[in-house]
Amino acid sequence: MKASLLSREPGLLPRDAAGETWLAAVIAVLCFVACLAAVGSAAADRAAHGWASQLRAEATVQVRPRVGETGPAAAARAAETLAGVSGVSEAVAMDRATAENLLRPWLGEAVLPDLPLPFLVTVRLDPDGPASALTLSRALAEAGLDASVDDHALWRGEVERSAALITALAVAGFLLLAAATAAVIVYATRAGLQAQRPVIETLSLSGASDQTVAWLFQRRFALLAAGAGAAGTVGAALLIAILTALGGDKGVTPALPLAWTDLLLISPCPLLAATVALVAARFAALRTLGGRSSGWTWTLGGRLARR
């Protein structure tokens, strides 16, 4: 009897008896938003760690020329000194034209000619064994240079804390979306069971157990969620692919570096949606069927009442 019931499943449960089209639409939207949230969080985390790596790989030295020495000459001597320090890959004195190009978007063209600019040296550190700020300062002092070394430790700490916060927010967002999806499926399952009570009574009179009837519903909602989740995932994947293609290797913007590997990140979404639907539908179905068997029933509002 059970095998017969399971083989005839498509004809046993009416289609869209409890607004399942709208349920599928809601699940698809939730999966679409979840995929975008996942990729956005991964891209933001990637950007934050990228900035931290760049800050860790560089240092900036401000050189103050001594009496009788020009600023460019002092900067060039500092760059030559630092280039020979162990743990330094390259040291380049920044000329005035380069400094003006960095400041022009912020200050404009009018004030730059008369603006006194510091004499800076950009130091690129060896990624395998970077030199510390103390080592650089000691080398400069031994060379008789008056200079200050900034290894960006303060900014690096802020960026790393931001990356940790982004990851925590991403996990919280996923948990909230999963809870919302489960709540929608549980409510829809209860509504579907109430709407199809005559079918449940008929299946019970035909010898079907509560487990068999529950399996019909949980399989139905799992397949529904899998299809809706796949639709939402495909929509998100298309949007991400378009944005990645437009942005190239660096993403749409430097603040949101998307990558083709992000598509692998969202690929499990349909399976996760189906799993949540399967578990939620089973618990809701068995709970409702248990109330029916004991002479009590669950109303659409979630209350227990006698039949």
Mean pLDDT: 77
Distance between the termini: 27 Å
> How many distinct helices?
11
Quaternary structure state of the chains depicted: single chain
Summing up helix and strand content along with how strands pair, one would put the structural category as alpha+beta
Question: What is the total number of structural domains?
Answer: 2
Adjacency order of strands in the biggest sheet = 2-3-1-4
- Beta strands, count: 6
* Structural Rg: 32 Å
Strand content: 5-15%
Low-confidence runs: 1-10, 293-307
What is the helix fraction of residues, given as a range?
55-70%
What would you call the shape? rod-shaped
Sheet having the most strands: 4 strands, antiparallel
Helix-strand pattern, N to C? Answer: HHHEHEHEHEHHHHHEE
Element layout with pairings:
Layout: H1 2-7, H2 9-12, H3 20-56, E1 58-64, H4 71-83, E2 88-93, H5 96-107, E3 119-125, H6 133-142, E4 146-150, H7 153-195, H8 197-205, H9 210-247, H10 262-266, H11 269-293, E5 296-298, E6 304-306
Antiparallel strand pairs: 1-3, 1-4, 2-3, 5-6
Helix pairs in contact: 3-7, 3-9, 7-11, 9-11
